[in-house]
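User: I'm writing a short report section on ligand binding and want a predicted complex to refer to. Could you take this sequence and magnesium ion and write out the structure as tokens? A short remark afterwards would be nice.
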Amino acid sequence: MMYWSDFVSYSAKTRVLTVDPYHPDEANIQTAADMIRAGGLVAFPTETVYGLGGNALDTHALERIYLAKERPTSDPIIAHVATLDQLNQLAIHVPKDIVKRLAEQFLPGALTLVLKRAPHVPDNIAAGLPTIAVRMPAHPVAKALILASGVPIAAPSANTFTRPSATTAQHVLEDLQDRVDIVLDGGETSIGLESTVLDLTNPDTPIILRPGGVLLDDLRRVLPNVQLAPRYLATDEASSSPGQMLKHYSPRAKIKLFTGPLYSVLLAMKETAQAHQKRGEKVGLLIANEDCHHLADYGVIHALGKRDDLKAISHNLFAGMRQLDSQKVDVILTRDFGRSGLGAALWDRLLRASEGRIIDVQ
Ligand code: TXA
Ligand code: MG
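Assistant: Sure. The structure tokens for the complex follow:
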């Protein structure tokens, strides 16, 4: 761990420790927990995506996270906890009844709660906002690390800013080699998209700021008046509105996102692919298994899963973007996979990754 260069970047000699995702090795967890307590950075798997973790109560560790990720300090970070007690220590005016009912259904899990921040929690975790986002992950490695550290762990997704989130330790290393002290390699994450961020700072009107692993319809059963209200802003407008940048989760290639009736979409994708190929550009296709035979000769295909299997498509999405990037495609054509269930989160990530380059073929 090195501190002298903290002002420009965070540099570290990265160590990878392999852990069994179900029964993580105690010695490796302890080594990683010691690093968290010493102010260092540890990347670890959660059931959504990998997180880049540091002590949530240590201002300097938080600074290092922003530096390592090259993340604007205006974008606040989620604190990860292992117990509801720990959650209650980070927040004030917690709507206890709502949190209890949510916890019974969804925690630990892919749900992040935005609450009012307790005064002892550093400002820079929340980019100066009076709030704190808290998540209790279900992944055994994340749980073990938080418990062994004895502190809440601040962790954004373990990718550099605007890159697709990391769903394997290999992705973490692609982006953060020599900027993170330890990577706990617990294999692929299961969900593959980030948590649902639910704002409870006004408990009468709960708002989903980011759709994710916990679904709107399931939240509605506990909170009938919950609203889905993510906002999408161009990067320069976004500094006052954390986490809502349109350019987010992007591979290096430009993404074009097609929406409309399926067969019109497939036809339009084919024509667009041909037009790019005529200009000598390499096309990547991020599509469902059943789409492949329609588009076989029109680019490098990355099949995400069966059309109706949104779990598989979500699980594979970010890895697919990275895979096509590594094949040096110039443009990635992908499509709408519907909006219900995980479709809402998929649409959100695709919209951001495409920076609004939507081709509506209705
Ligand atoms: O699944 C996840 O949530 C992953 C894993 C590692 O837990 N984490 C993650 O963190 O996706 P990140 O930093 O990539 O995204 C956190 C989101 C951002 O949209 C951020 O703006 C929002 O949560 N957020 C964090 N603190 C907030 C706050 N106090 N108020 C409003 N939004 C907040
Ligand atoms: Mg992120």
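A remark for your report: The longest strand covers residues 111-117. The chain has a mean pLDDT of 93.
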